[in-house]
Specification:
Length: 307
C-alpha cells in the first residue's frame, strides 16, 4: 500500500510528530525530507511576496533579504542562512519542532538564537497559516535580524522577560493564586507588546512622516495582509502607546484591524527599555483580560527560569 508523501508540510509532517513525541524541542533541519510540493510552495510564496516587499517593507528588511542571499527557488538551508546572519548581528536561526513555551522563546532571543519552524504551509492555501512556518520565520522574521539595532531590540526584549521571570519567582503575595494571576498578566502584556511590534508593527518611513512601511513579520509573510495593513481604510493605525498596547487583546484568525506605529528602531528600543520599568513598578500586574491565552507551560516557564 502506498503512503502519501507529506514531506515537511505544516501539521502533516511525521518527522515533526515523532520529534514532539520524543520530547525534542530543538532539532535539526532534515532538508532531504522536503518534497517537490514543499519547494514549489516556497517558490510561489517568494514570487508573490517580492513585489509586495519592494512596495511596502521597511528598507532594512529588503537589505536583509539581500544580505541573507535568500533563494527564490528553494527553501533555505538554515546553516546557509546562519553563515550570512551571524557575522552581521551574532543571531542565528535555531530549528524547533513546534511550540516553545514563552520564557524559553524569549530567552532564546536574549541569547541571539531565533526559534525557527522548519515545516512549510500547505501549498493549497498559501495565505493560511495554522501555525508559524519556515516562510514566516525565515522570510518574515530573519531579514530584520540582520539589522543591528533591531537585533538589539530583540535581545533587550529577552532581558525584559528575564527580569519578569526573576520578579515572578521572588515576589511575596498573599496567596499562590494571586502570584499566578500577576505572572499571567505580565506574560500577557509581553505577548501583546511583541505581537503589535515584532509581529504586526508599522514604522514611519522617516521620523515625523505620515508615510508608513512594514517591519512586523506577520505582515511581511502574508500575501494578503501586507498591503491591507498600509492601504485599507478598515485598519486603524495609531502612534504606539505602551499602556494601550499591553491592554489590547488580539485575535489571530483574521486580518488585524488595529495596528501601531513606531518612529524608528531607536524608538522601539526605548519602548522595550520602558517596558522593563513598567514590570518592575507593577504596572503590568493587572492588565485587561482577553487574548492571548496563557498556558500552564507558559506560566511554568517563567516560574522555573534559571537565575
Amino acid at each position: 500500500m502506498s503512503t502519501v508523501d507529506y514531506g515537511l508540510t505544516t501539521t502533516k509532517a511525521p518527522f515533526i510528530e515523532q520529534a514532539q513525541q520524543n520530547g525534542q524541542r530543538f532539532i535539526e533541519q532534515p532538508y532531504e525530507l522536503y518534497n517537490e510540493d514543499n519547494q514549489d510552495t516556497w517558490r510561489r510564496l517568494y514570487a508573490t511576496m517580492l513585489p509586495l516587499w519592494e512596495k511596502y517593507a521597511n528598507p532594512r528588511f529588503m537589505e536583509g533579504v539581500s544580505n541573507l542571499m535568500l533563494s527564490p527557488d528553494a527553501i533555505p538551508r538554515l546553516e546557509e542562512v546562519n553563515k550570512f546572519l551571524e557575522p552581521l548581528t551574532a543571531f542565528k536561526a535555531k530549528p524547533v519542532s513546534g511550540y516553545i513555551p514563552a520564557y524559553i522563546f524569549f530567552d532564546c532571543i536574549r541569547n541571539r538564537e531565533f526559534p525557527t519552524t522548519i515545516t512549510i504551509r500547505d501549498g493549497q492555501k498559501l495565505d493560511y497559516l495554522p501555525e508559524p512556518d519556515i516562510f514566516h520565520d525565515i522570510a518574515g522574521h530573519v531579514p530584520m535580524h540582520t539589522d543591528r539595532r533591531f537585533a538589539d531590540v530583540l535581545v533587550q526584549f529577552g532581558e525584559v522577560a528575564r527580569g519578569a521571570a526573576h520578579r515572578a519567582q521572588d515576589m511575596k503575595c498573599d496567596s499562590e493564586e494571586q502570584r499566578l494571576a500577576i505572572v499571567e498578566s505580565n506574560i500577557k502584556g509581553l505577548a501583546r507588546f511583541f505581537w503589535y511590534t515584532v509581529e504586526f508593527g508599522l514604522m514611519r518611513k522617516t521620523p515625523g512622516s505620515q508615510d508608513l512601511c512594514v517591519y512586523g513579520s506577520g505582515l511581511l509573510s502574508s500575501i494578503g495582509e501586507i498591503e491591507h495593513s498600509i492601504v485599507s481604510p478598515i485598519v486603524q493605525r495609531y502612534p504606539i502607546q505602551i499602556e494601550w498596547v499591553i491592554n489590547q487583546y488580539f485575535e489571530i484568525d483574521h486580518f488585524q484591524e488595529l495596528l501601531f506605529i513606531v518612529d524608528s528602531f531607536d524608538h522601539l528600543f526605548d519602548l522595550v527599555d520602558e517596558l522593563h520599568t513598567w514590570i518592575e513598578q507593577g504596572k503590568m500586574d493587572n492588565l485587561a483580560k482577553g487574548e492571548p491565552a496563557i498556558s500552564k507551560l507558559d506560566l511554568e516557564s517563567f516560574l522555573t527560569a534559571e537565575k
